[in-house]
Amino acid sequence: MLTIWGRLSSVNVQKAVWAAGEVGQAFERIDVGGPFGGLDTPDYGAMNPNRQIPVLRDGDVTLWESNTIVRYLAARYGEGLIDADPVGRAQAERWMDWMLSELQPAMAPVLFGTVRKLPGYTEPAQIAAAVARAEAKIAILEDQLADRPFLGGERFGVADITVGCGAHRWLNMPVERIARPSVERWYATLMARPAAQVALPLPVA
Length: 205
Description:
By secondary structure, the protein is of the alpha+beta class.
């Protein structure tokens, strides 16, 4: 059985939980991080010196970094989630890196201001500016999905898991959004998957 450390309100933990469900591996999830604490213990530091979530343990394999965990689970257990062709694989996996480098940083201030209401993020002008930055990234996603059912093309894969967690957060935050029919169609398809329903609770937190 797999073990995943991390609170389910974390978008990065959601990626790992969704991937584990998609590849059909039973797992135990242990709440750490945020209000649960536990990241500063020696045992946790031995698993992840960055003291971040998630961490995955699979037998004698211990991994951190959410995208690495998704790739590992797909490669080891999830035949079909990663393209065997290097070009197809790279074209899908670039969206995983885009999620970390572009979409997540753009969306985070919106979450901090409207959901978590953290000091320094709640002024209406700050929220409006953050929403505009996030919308620019969602427009890129809309363009990619306009002529294909999934981010990598015709088949569901690791990019959909990773970016789908971001779309779940974006589409369920209390802000006014520009209509994105392709993103909304894709998201509805993702949310019909049982593993996504387990990994992506509401409300976002």
